[in-house]
Amino acid sequence: MKEFDNTIEFVEKKSRFIAYKLSCTKLDEVESALAELRAQHKKATHICFAYSLKNPFLEKAVDDGEPSSTAGRPILSVIQKKGLTDVCVFVVRYFGGIKLGAGGLVRAYTKSASEVLK
Fold first, then answer.
1. Is the Cβ–Cβ distance between 2 and 90 less than 8 Å?
2. How far from the centroid of its chain's Cα atoms is residue 9's Cα?
3. Are 17 and 105 in contact (CB under 8 A)?
4. pLDDT one-digit tens code per residue, 95-109
5. Distance CA 104, CA 102 (A)
6. Within 10 Å of residue 19's Cβ, how many Cβ atoms?
7. Which of 25, 41, 54, 112 is such that its CA lies 20 to 30 A from the CA of 80?
């Protein structure tokens, strides 16, 4: 089981968001953590994430089925604004039946990343 640095959870309009912070220096660490989260959260609707690695410099944002740029990009923005590298933030979402809209999704994923990186 991968050791995450921090985890937070909150509910927004019946959707459950669980955020995980992972300190990592290699892409394979991100991939193995993602595989573990997918196995652990089989019924999750989405597992969105973003990472920033220092050497070699790599950044990526993944929406995992959420509307384009409403999940991964806001997570990556928080990482960048905090000036962090060698970090990955995963946000697991269980859909609660109420659509949040693009703005609501951006706010929820931004809040998830901000809280888990505190």
1. no
2. 12
3. no
4. 999 999 999 999 999
5. 6
6. 26
7. 41
The backbone region for 6, taken as left when phi is positive above 0, alpha when psi lies in -120 to 50, beta otherwise, is beta
Q: How far, in Å, CA of 107 to CA of 68, rounded? A: 14
Q: For 45-58, how does the pLDDT look when each residue is reduced to its tens digit (9 = 90+)?
A: 999 999 999 999 99
- Cis bond upstream, residue 56 (ω within 30): yes
Cα separation, 20 vs 89, whole angstroms: 6
* Predicted confidence (pLDDT) at residue 1 exceeds the cutoff of 70: no
Of the candidates 24, 21, 29, 85, which has an alpha carbon nearest to the alpha carbon of residue 59?
Answer: 85
* Complete domains list, the chain, with CATH: 6-116 (3.30.230.30)
**Residue-wise over 43-74: b if at least 16 C-beta within 10 A, else e?**
ebebbbbbbbbeeeeeeebbbbebeeebbbbb
**27: helix, coil or strand?**
helix
The CA-CA-CA angle for residues 93, 26, 83, to 5°, reads 70
pTM above 0.85, yes or no: yes
